[in-house]
Amino acid sequence: MKIASKLLLSTAALMLAGALPAAAAWKPQKPIEFVATAGPGGGTDNLARAVQSIITKYKLTDQPVVVVNKGGGSGAEGYIYGKASAGDPYKVIFGTSNAWQQPLVSKVAFNYTDLTPIAAMAQDEFLLWVKQDAPYKTVGDFLKAAAASEFKMGGAQSKDTDEVLTRMIEKAARVKFTYIPFKSGAEAAVQLAGGHIDAHVNNPSESLGQWRGSTQRPLCAFSPKRLPQGPKVTTSEGWSDVPTCVEQGLAISQYEQPRTVWLPGKVSPEQAAFYVDLMKQVQATPEWKEYIEKTSQVDTFLTGAAFDDFIKKDLEHVKQVAGEQGWLVK
Amino acid sequence: MISRRALEIAAAALTGIFGVVVIISSIDNGIGWSSAGVDAGTFPFLTGVIIVLGSLYNVAHGALGRGTLANVRIAITATEVRRLAGLFVPAAIFVAVIPLLGMYLASAGYVFAVLALPRRQPVLRALVIGAATPLALYIVFERMFQVSLPHGALAAAFGF
Amino acid sequence: MENLESLLHGFTIAVTVPHLTLMVVGVLLGILVGVLPGLGAPNGVSLLLPLTFGMQPVSAIILLSSMYWGALFGGSVTSILFNIPGEPSSVATTLDGYPMARDGRPTTALATAFGSAAFGALVGVILITFLASWVAQVALAFGPPEYFAVYFLAFASFVGMGGAAPIKTVVALGIGFAIAAIGIDTVSGSVRLTMGIDELVKGVSFVVAVMGLFGIGELLIAVEEEFSARAVSSRVDWKEVFRALGRLPQHGIALLRSAAIGCWMGITPGGPTAASFMSYGIAKRFSRSGARFGTGEAEGIVAPETADHAAGTSALLPMLSLGIPGSATAAVMMGGLMIWGLNPGPMLFVDQKDFVWGLIASMYLGNIVAVALVLLTVPVFAALMRIPFAVIAPLIVIICVVGAYSVSNSYLDVVLMLGFGLVGYLFKKLHYPLAPLVLAIVIGDKAEDAFRQAMLMSKGSLGIFFANGLVTTLVLAGMALLLLPLALQLLHLSRKPGEAAHERVRII
Q: Which of B116, C323, C478, C481 has a 20 to 30 Å separation from B78 between CA atoms?
């Protein structure tokens, strides 16, 4: 997933700086439904609720906003619901890269082309985590040990972002892992703390508490440059002290999980423009910045061609990994 | 009206068919062991087989009229069938019209019809309960807990 | 006692007018969502969540956890009065609670349930207060094989206890397992058993199944038996509330045993549902009145309710100290913690003393507030039983329909629920046991996941279930519970053939 981050940043800046489109003539006439493709408490659910509370606080629209959870089937429930609501501009679907990745590897009855892309807001980073008292201090040590015995790598769900990244590490470092899928990253974190698995690739927010509590620590971040400086997590270290994986000699320069926003298919361009604009206004608030910081995500905003481009590149990439692993559905 | 034996056989046949469906759909998921561990279809397949075997046993048992309930010959009498239908049929109609009328209209109509038509309750009381039910639903679900109940195709046609 | 000091400090935070008000508001809202099936604590809590963004974290968690207590209590109300469990953990309460209420003793049933629930919650909070750090360590010892062993233990203690025909029990269990498998499989990521219905990829929610099987199914049984003719005479009787509470100490052993089971299952990943089933199963086996379970026995209410609340309370501990949510509601609260800028994990107890101990103090107070409020409502709820059947029946149908719909705003769920209603009637009529079916729906897929994860770790060797003392003990205990009654029955049968005539009474 080598997206030129310059392109990404400049597009985002352009979007923010540029004049808001005056053509956003369409306005909602009845309550809007936010569909979170995750159960209550999941990252996507939190995002949808944060956006909802910001919209309500600043009265960004006259109509009430209701959040509905449709997280069954790893989010497929929500996307299928979006597909079935074609032409209905009052359903906004909040998801992840699952929207295009899941149809590749499972026989689910939707594809991202059934939906109208609005934006990608906020990206979750990935890090390589090991148990606090593990003997290896660097990625090099870790991979050497992994080559000697088959390590158990945990992660959330199967054939999803975590496993894709695990398989990418296998390939880049020529090692073999046993991947054990759990329901969520939080569960994988606890399994690592208990020593039942050897490593996982959780997002910062999923393992923050565990790092602070000295049960596990990050070895490297799958990011082109170090994570932004923030408050210290442990007494001595913060996110920016974690080296990138490339620095440590593991050649995976970028891997991240975007939070995506969609409308059902067959809505008018004016309707889509309204929501793009709405999300932009949300992103400009201090509450949004606070949300991003507290959940240790990276603030981005992709829409239009930039978003399409992002999806295409990511899709190509995942197709390659899935093809090598024999996951592609016939 | 319906004999115990017929009912036992029908139930066992129902569970058996479910078992067969489970077996067939689980074969798609793969059975056995692969590099990704126990295949996804393995456990559903085994449960399907167990359900089918159990159902076969229950069919035989029911047909022979064995078991603890063997002395009960008639399972459901004609009056009982009428009473069952009296509850279930209106409920099924209620559920069937929800997509068209929406939850509020459908529930009002359902309550009113069930209470007033068999003359169990005075018409006025049926009207009051019929009107109060959707109102209570609206306040609790739509207003307090922000759960949007279906408004129905009819309401959508009028722009709600 | 450092903990005691911290707790006293916590009380100074919790006992303020705004916090006490929040508790009352939270509990009342909780009772309401608990009583309405389909809404449930997770919905209520996630709905309140955005309101709490501007609050102090400790105030926010007091509001949300009070709502949780209220919902736990409220969930038992519909189970007892109408045989509709609003939460998975109240299914076991219906087994004796509903017969007792139908027998004309709804007040007794409700008061017994609330009293024992309060006791269970109290034991859970005491455990959290004094053993927090130790408990957190215990929970870490559980990997996939141990998870599986815990689920196995829960199954073993509950299944095989019933008097129903064994093959019918097996079929019911199998159907439950198959229903649990519908949807996306965690371990392989593939879609299973959707039978051509795309929307089934989300799986079949437990609430949908239970509302049909128990709610509609029971309604059909009731009309058929012309239950409508027998109006239940239940006076609004305040004295009975206290008399029922006064009788609780008679069940001292059951209370203690159930609280212990509840705490154990709350800390380990079993959770409240498995706890209530296991406690009921064990009580049935070891209690003196065990043979009469299923006919409205008080101890059959005490056992699941105590365990449910002990587990529900102690399930908050792994959430705070490890970041594993022990229940769906805990998962939502954990999302809240993150948004308030707190990170669940081992350091929470060190970094955020005020928050943690304020919460623990509020658990004592919140439960007292909840019990007081809920006991006040007993006569009101009991009076619902006096509404003529002809009126209450369509209302129950509407509650089930709306409840099934609101689980995930899906019309398909409503249709499924009605279908489950017919199945529930048929099964009940023919003495297929429903409780094992429900237990299989709730924990069947979790048990399967844990088993397959363990197999991945061991590369297919079953030896992993005997790899250490903990897992070996759990597996052996499960096997003993499974085989013991069989052995006893064989012994019994060889001596007294033809004793099976009593079977009718005991079937649940």
A: B116
Domains in chain B, number: 2
Percent of residues, chain B, with pLDDT higher than 90: 53
Q: What is the pLDDT of residue C501?
A: 40
Inter-chain CB proximity C409 and B145 less than 8 Å: no
Q: What is the pLDDT of residue B159?
A: 67
Overall domain count for chain C: 1
Residue-wise pLDDT for C331-382, tens only, equals 778 778 877 878 777 778 877 888 889 889 989 999 999 999 999 888 888 8
Q: How far, CA to CA in Å, does C150 sit from each of B81, C266, C327?
A: 44, 11, 16
Query: In terms of pLDDT, which residue wins out, C305 or C506?
Result: C305
**A68 with B160: Cβ contact below 8 A:** no
pLDDT for the residue numbered A13:
44
Q: Would the ipTM clear 0.95, i.e. be above it?
A: no
Give contacts of B36 with chain A, Cβ < 8 Å: 158
Last residue of a domain, one of B76, B109, B129: B76
Q: What is the pLDDT of residues A64-89, one digit of tens each?
A: 888 888 888 889 999 999 999 999 99
Q: Radius of gyration over alpha carbons of chain B, in Å?
A: 24
Which among A41-55, A239-253, C77-91 has the top mean pLDDT? A239-253
Give the tokens for residue B86.
């009296």
Token pair of C331, please?
């998962």
Contacts of C335 (CB under 8 A, 6+ apart): A40, A41, A42, A45, A46, C46, C49
Q: Which of B76, B103, B130 is the last residue of a domain?
A: B76
> Got the DSSP string for A206-233?
HHHHHHHTTSEEEEEESSSSPPPP-S-S
How far apart CA A237 and CA A307 sit, in angstroms, is: 34
Distance, in Å, from the CA atom of C156 to the CA atom of C178, rounded to the nearest integer, reads 19
pLDDT (0 to 100) of residue C240: 87
Is residue A107 within 8 Å of C189, Cβ to Cβ?
A: no
Start-end of H helices in C143-292: 144-158, 166-181, 206-210, 217-224, 238-247, 252-267, 271-286
Of B36, B148, B160, the CB nearest to A33: B148
- Which of A185, A210, A241 is the last residue before a domain boundary? A241
Distance separating alpha carbons of residues B10 and B16, to the nearest angstrom: 10
Question: Same domain for A110 and A141?
Answer: no
Whether B89 and B120 share a structural domain: yes
pLDDT digits (tens, 9 = 90+) for C247-296: 999 999 999 999 999 998 888 777 888 899 999 999 988 888 888 898 99
Chain B positions touching A64 (Cβ under 8 A) are: 146
Give the range of the structural domain holding residue B51, as residue numbers without chain letter. Answer: 2-76
The span from the CA of B45 to the CA of B27, in Å, is 7
CA distance B29 to B33: 12
Contact A246, A253 (CB under 8 A): yes
Q: Identify which of C200, C180, C178 has the alpha carbon closest to the alpha carbon of residue A72.
A: C200
pLDDT tens profile C126-174? 998 888 778 777 888 899 999 999 999 988 888 765 556 788 989 999 9
B20, B21, B22, B35: best to mutate for the C interface, most C CBs within 10 A: B22
Q: Which chains are within 8 Å of C by 3+ CB pairs?
A: A, B
Whether residues A78 and A142 share a domain: the answer is no
Dist. CA C254–CA C185, nearest whole Å: 38
Q: What is the CATH number of the domain that holds A172?
A: 3.40.190.10
Q: Is B68 on the interface with A (CB under 8 A)?
A: no
- Beta bridge partner(s), residue A262: A93, A117
